[in-house]
What we know:
Elements: H1 3-12, H2 15-38, H3 40-43, H4 51-63, H5 69-77, H6 90-104, H7 122-135, E1 145-149, H8 158-166, E2 171-175, H9 181-198, E3 203-207, E4 224-227, E5 230-231, E6 237-239, E7 241-247, E8 260-263, H10 265-269, E9 276-280, E10 286-295, E11 298-303, E12 307-310, E13 314-318, E14 325-328, E15 338-341, E16 346-350, E17 370-373, H11 377-380, E18 388-391, E19 396-406, E20 412-415, H12 420-426, E21 432-441, E22 447-450, E23 455-456, H13 469-481, E24 484-487, H14 493-505, E25 512-517, H15 520-524, H16 526-533, E26 539-544, H17 545-552, H18 554-570, E27 575-578, H19 583-588, H20 593-601, E28 607-610, H21 616-630, H22 658-669
Parallel strand pairs: 1-2, 1-28, 2-3, 3-24, 7-8, 16-17, 24-25, 25-26, 26-27, 27-28
Antiparallel strand pairs: 4-12, 5-6, 7-11, 9-10, 9-13, 10-11, 13-14, 15-22, 16-21, 18-19, 18-23, 19-20, 19-21
Helix pairs in contact: 2-4, 2-6, 8-9, 14-16, 17-18
Amino acid sequence: MNKRLAHETFAAWDPRVCEGLIEELWALRSSMLAHAAGLAPWLAEVAPSHAASATNLAHYLAMRRIDLRSIQERLSWLGLSSMGRAETHALANLDKVLGILHRLAGQPWVGLGEEEPVGSRRGPALLASNATALLGPAPVERTVRIMVTLPSAAATDDALVTSLVGAGMDIARINCAHDGAADWILMAERVRGAAKKAGRPVRVLMDLGGPKLRTGPLADDPPVLKLKPQRDGLGRMATPARLGLRPAGSSSRVVGAELCVGVDAAWLARLEAGDRIDLTDTREAGRKFKVVDRQPAGVVVECRHTCYLGAETRLLLHRKGHAAADTGLHDLPAAVGTLTLQRGDLLHVVASGLGQSADAGERGGRARPAVIACTLPAALARVRKGERVWFDDGRIGGVVRRVLRRDVRGDARGDARGDARGDAQRGGAGGVGGVEVEITQARDGGERLAADKGINLPDTVLDLPALTDKDIADLAVVARHADLVGLSFAQSASDVRALRQRLVALDAAHLGLILKIETQRGFEHLPEMLLAAMACPHAGVMIARGDLAVECGYERLAEVQEEILWACEAAHMPVIWATQVLETLAKTGLPSRAEITDAAMGERAECVMLNKGPHIVEAMRMLDNILRRMQAHQAKKRPLLRALKSWVSALEAPVAGPARKAAAVAALTG
């Protein structure tokens, strides 16, 4: 052993090192107790069964206010257990370390168990029992449950639901933002029937839609049908494109043709195998069809070149000895309307109306930007110039350049002052009509934006209640047919209390409550929502990583989801790891390497959620395999314990009035 190493080893066991740590840890312990005492109004609201968990959460949040990395390093140097696994029993863990340090320093130590809400065994046991009570028992072979979002077909397809239950679905999620109440009831009934036949419990979560901002309707694009022959590696035509022609209005299947259009019945009756049909497609390109098969339902024609058919396209029949005859096209499949947006484009997001593409305008005139409506017009009244806007799960991003004020005719026009809040207060000539957004984030070549796509306003303070009128109406069905209810876009303790009151009024207080954390504000207010949720018999948290990534920034998602996991573990509250888990596999049948690693991270939660897809059963089986393997390697985590600044002062005075609450939020976000 060299002299330097010998000196460091000796110094590590120097009583002065222990005494310094003892002094720091006693100060930390005092701050933890003081923080819990200061949160007495919050702690008084929780159910008695969650009192110890609430106190432990208060202790943990106080402990994480400081940077513990230096303490961690010195404890490790001494060969002592670190504080990196203190979530479930923060004060008891600290007391154990203090006791050992006192012994090493030759100081007397008296156990402080009476002040500890939970110990090293009871803390993890509480989390496990809470998870079982909320989510149902975990399967024998793995400790993490699997939740699956049901597709619309689950309302009518018994075989589909049976396959999901058979593949290991522990919880069925019904998204109340889609389908209708009758469909949800049928889904729940089929899940319960399949679970009974399988002899295993499967719980039903009904997820309220919440105040989700989405893009409004768009006019359908002109119908255009593309025919494209298959070619070999040298570009030579291998298989002609085939199209079925049938009488206009008919839905009969034309065998041998994947695509069909309608034509005039009298014209169609004249066709025979071998006939030649000429046309000019939508690109003004001359094309030829050849009739290759005639059958009762219609005829099959072949085309050897790529062809685009539109509503104005006409088919011209040529036959020797007969006059040429033509027909128009009918029953072309509707094309879903979209807006094509590129970096630098302007987009008007308005309160209502049908979206429309940009108009180049007349020569010398100003082009009209593309327009799309927002499904929650009230949100636009809170937007300010310079704030960010994201569309379609972050695929398209932009910045608000100005506010549009609605004039007396109801049209949106620009307001140079650019502050929607101020404009709403001034009243203007009809109030805020929308905002003008400059597109700053889009793929090269542009992105398409369709109707019913998500809108995120991460910089905007939206004082919107988590329960919409629709949610309140839906709760009547949820209360009778679900085991769990998901509170979407939960952002404050008042949101949690509002749902709790509704459930009590519906005699459904027994339902498990799932807080969906999917906004930056929801993340910032997580501690107060956890404490408010502890008034319920059973509660948990879903990390809705899709919207959360857009709101907080993709680069921050990893640390945000870590902090949520830690806080929930300290509250002994189960977590659902959600959004895009094995999504590529579920949709295409082939996973990406990155999502395999992501799925493995789900072992640190109590449940992992998969979204629907044609290959969902394969995704479930792979997730089951991954979770079984990972649970033999890892249980939760071991962090370095740098200071957490996300929730500093967030709970200082929740009951004392708006001023102190505002100060707490300012400290949190500043």
